[in-house]
Design brief:
Layout (H helix, E strand, L loop, with lengths): L2 H32 L1
């Protein structure tokens, strides 16, 4: 694999995991406010 391909793969994984983490944290915050 070339350096750019590895970089793009890591970047994509960061975007995906970052989005998942952000959505989970947002859902927790909303759930806390409703109680």
């Amino acid at each position: 694999m070339t350096g750019s391909a590895i970089f793009m793969m890591i970047l994509g994984m960061l975007i995906i995991w970052g989005g998942l983490t952000a959505s989970v944290l947002y859902a927790r915050k909303v759930a806390k406010q409703r109680k």
